[in-house]
## 1
Amino acid sequence: MQNFKNLRVYEEAFRLSKDVFEFMEDKKMSFRAKEQLLASVSSICANLAEMGALDSIPAQKQKLTTCIGEANETEYWLDLCHSLKIIPQREHLNFMNSLVRIRSMLCKLKLSVEKRGDMKS
């Protein structure tokens, strides 16, 4: 696998993680909910970093599936925070647009890894 930092999806996920962390820094809300949002958004790029060390195609596919799951969880927490008026409409829309792009890139990367696996069979 290539250096995970060279993946465009990693760059996008890292930027989203940083943006969400900075936005949520001074927000007053349940510690648990804030912790869950920050954990899920940062887990996307953390799992991409772990994937960079894996040689096995099935293991890489599993890590990408985990990344997609973390993106889905992040969407839930962003929606909840928006519905509770912790995240205003404009920021929610910006975060969601980034998340949708990231999830699309993750799905394409997973498909690419699967095709590489099919070629080796």
## 2
Amino acid sequence: MSLDRFIQIKTNNLQPVKGRVLLSEPFMGDYYFGRSVVLLAEHNPEGSFGVILNKKIPAHLTDFIQELGDTELPVYLGGPVETNRLFFIHTLGEVIEDSVSLIDGLYWGGNLQDIKELSRNKVLTDKNFRFFLGYSGWGAEQLSSELKRNSWAVTHIKTQQIFQTKPEILWKKLTLQLGVNYKLWNKFPADPASN
């Protein structure tokens, strides 16, 4: 199959909504978005935003919030916007005030005092929390335009997939869910020049 034919494949018809993920097309070479999995925390006519799930950075949570004591949770690259702020998702919406439900069992944000208390009680783990430096954002109609250009495919994700799948294989595992039209996405090397 020629590369031209591959690029012309029509995008999937699943619409972006809060709690779904965007999978970048395999040739996107951008530092932030190359082979990225972006969890949408919001999508509406004014714009969209979310965090990149699969790009761990060489830092720990206590590098940013010393009050959390010896909590050595990893931090992930959330996106190119507001890279001086931390954002988080978790599974403890029933005990963290002001949490926003994204999908079944997964929540966005919440009260920082509750987080500190959970940290003191050794409840924060990489199985129930993920922290991100910065976020990914799109203005009104920007994401729709990128979807029409096949820059992204939209798919579902389950809470356990986020916390139980190794970040370095998450993009590959989720692209396999897209069906036969996307079968070739996993065949292309991450760096075409190395082929």
## 3
Amino acid sequence: MLLVQKSVAHPWMCDVLGHMTTRFYLNMFDDASYHLLYGVFGWSGASDDQGDFGWADVRHTIDYVAEVNAGDVLETHGGISKIGNKSITIRYEMMNLGENELAATLECVCVLFDLKARKAVPLTDELRSLAETHLIPAGEH
């Protein structure tokens, strides 16, 4: 899996119970997605001059595994767990480095999206080939 994000749980990211609030988990995973798409496909929001295609998340499943408190240092890794016709499924794992434990996981279904037609389109052979090089072995997810 690729290292796709490093972060810190700041006090202002925590809820009234003192734990990092849901909105910031998703924020960190969203930032990680840009790093993953760049690391796998060389894609960034600015890389397509014509604005022809992008990636659109269509499903998120988050599992909160352990508490994250203010000051915790986090690291997120990601990889592709499934390649479909128009989509990839990405697995992210957020680790709490100080506690040496898994804090959360996110499974994301992401479609290749034609920005002009406003619809999902099939993965090209080139994108499929690039995705395959980052496919997580079945036993690791």
## 4
Amino acid sequence: MTVERILAVKGHDVVTTQPHRTLHEVSCLLADKGIGAVIVVDAESTILGILSERDVVRAIAQRGAEALHEAVSKFMTAKVATTTRASSIQGVMEQMTAGRFRHLPVMHHGRLEGVVSIGDLVKYRIAEIESEHEAMRDYIAHA
């Protein structure tokens, strides 16, 4: 199975922000949307970075409350790993585990097409395992 399958179910909506927004503004955005990360883009929607809850915590731990008034560009992760919709679920899970991150932008022909989270992947895998389990029960019951 591929990332495309997850995007078909969850949709292609991506929450983005600009690099000049303050850490406070983006923290409120994360809270309002109930999400764990936001993609930082420029005016042409080119990915500049990603800001996660973990980045917010680190910023406040390092700079104190003053960090909340600074631009997210100072605290975002600038080197953003990405994936494609053709990537396998297993491969993406391995990529996230190795990189120790929980959100992965999905790119298609150089454009941001979606974001998958570790929660999305786990939810999909659980549904897949339950489906396989049910199929096995049916097979055994009717054999």
